[in-house]
Amino acid sequence: GSDANLNSLDVTTDVTANRIKIVDDLGPYLNLYRTDNIIGSGNHLGSLVFGGGPEAYQNAPLDDTAIVLKAQAAGAASANNSPSKLTIQGVSNNSSSLSDWVTFVDGEVGIGPNNPSEKLDVNGNLLTRGDIVSRDSYPSIYVDHSGTVMGGLRAAATSKLELKTLTTAPLSFQ
Q1: Which of 92, 102, 113, 149 is the most exposed place for a label (fewest CB within 10 A)?
Q2: Rounded to whole angstroms, how far apart are CA atoms 49 and 1?
Q3: How many whole angstroms separate alpha carbon 6 and alpha carbon 98?
């Protein structure tokens, strides 16, 4: 195909250093795309594999593969809609397969879950070394036990801080 900026594009390969350099006056751009031009839910759109030999990921995903950045369709594409999912995969300690470490889909981030249901969805413990700040009109922290919201802490405007139970279970302090 032709590209209006093709004359300003410089792609070089340094075989001795195993590097590809892409230089462009308007900013380098790497385009990975499907030649069949079909994007259906779950279709693999492309991957960047960091690790061992040139065929490591295709032939045996664990042979010398350190980390994979994988793009796939999250739904069927239409005129103005192309739902997509970007996943960072790797091999965790004591594991024998690639797993999804971080997933980005529809503006949501999953650390652990591969289909996050909130802006940040974490499967596991959360550690913060700073403040957790909510700037909502009525910021709240609720405890959800297996799908049942038990209660929580809520700031009622600027007048009070409420500790609430939303079930018949009593509040208990130990």
Answers
A1: 92
A2: 27
A3: 38
Q: How many residues does the chain have?
A: 174
For residue 161, what are its two tokens?
A: 């801080």
3-class SS letters over the chain: CCCCCHHHCEEEEECCCCEEEEECCCCCCCCCCCCCCCCCCCCEEEEEEEECCCCHHHHCCCCCEEEEEEEEECCCCECCECCEEEEEEECCCCCCCCEEEEEEECCEEEECCCCCCCCEEECCCCCCCCCCCCCCCCCEEEEEECCEEEEEEEEECCCEEEEEECCCCCCCCC
Quote the tokens at residue 131: 């403040």
> Which own/partner pairs from 157-162 qualify as long-range (CB within 8 Å, at least 24 positions apart)?
none
Backbone angles phi, psi at 168, to 5 degrees: -80, -5
Interval 107-131: pLDDT, tens:
899 998 888 989 999 998 888 898 8
Q: What is the pTM of this model?
A: 0.68
